[in-house]
Amino acid sequence: MVWLILVVVGLLGGTLGSLMGLGGGIVVVPALLMLASLSYLDITPQVAVGTSLLIMIFTGISATISYMKQKKVDYKSGLLFFSASGPGAVVGTWLNRGGDASSFQMYLGFFILFVSFILLIRNRLSPLPRSGKGVERVTTDEEGNVYTYGYRLVPVLALSFVVGMLSGLFGIGGGSLLVPAMIVLFSFPPHSAVATSMFIILLSAVVGSLSHVMQGNVNWMYALALIPGAWFGGTLGAAINRRLSSDKLVLVLRFILIIIAFRLIYEGMTST
């Protein structure tokens, strides 16, 4: 029964992570910790994070392949983001080794609530100015909407480092911050933001999971049960994403972010 539950957890995490560009760890990590609290699994928070990051590699590969076929991945931007998120993932893994992260969970939860509010009023906001050395792109989505988006290098690198650090620290992929920032701050098309986020999360998960593997923070038996669901979930989430309009995708993203925020706040308060 436990192995069946793990397959379902992998499927849900992979589907949600691929659909929203969140990575899937936001489902896998709390699910593993809940099963551990019920004495179904013998697993520590560090192992839950390390195992989640390993699973995100398979979700990321599956989702990225699907988004590549849909031609929604901005590879150049993704590699630039990863140049900072990769080192950030290593730092996050180091921070994960000890200390009480409950206060940080609460702060992150409140920040994600703020991000969901920003998404609500995003049409009234202007993207960051791109004077000086920066990148600008123009693309047309499947609905015929033309998007002009871009960014300056310093804000992108700073944001990416923080996203990578959160990925290594909590095993949640970092997309809960990355996708809204790409949409609001840099005017990415929502579908492209999700697809590119999964590409970045894939690369960051490889770096973060390797760090956790070296520290012995991966349960390989649990991972084998989670991987099949995560793989199929990655493909399923990308397929659902294609059927959602940009406005509906942002609406669903806001809903998911609110759930994530309250979960983080609750866990932070109950673990203090």
UniProtKB/TrEMBL annotation:
Question: What kind of membrane protein is this, topologically?
Answer: Multi-pass membrane protein
Annotated membrane-spanning segments are: 47-67, 79-95, 107-125, 195-214, 220-240, 249-266
**Which family would the database say this protein is a member of?**
Belongs to the 4-toluene sulfonate uptake permease (TSUP) (TC 2.A.102) family.
Q: Which UniProt keywords apply?
A: Cell membrane, Membrane, Transmembrane, Transmembrane helix
Protein name stated in the entry: Probable membrane transporter protein
Q: Does the keyword Cell membrane apply?
A: yes
Q: Where in the cell is it found?
A: Cell membrane; Membrane
| Source species of the chain | Halalkalibacter kiskunsagensis
Question: Which one Pfam family would you cite for this protein?
Answer: TauE
Domain of life (superkingdom):
Bacteria
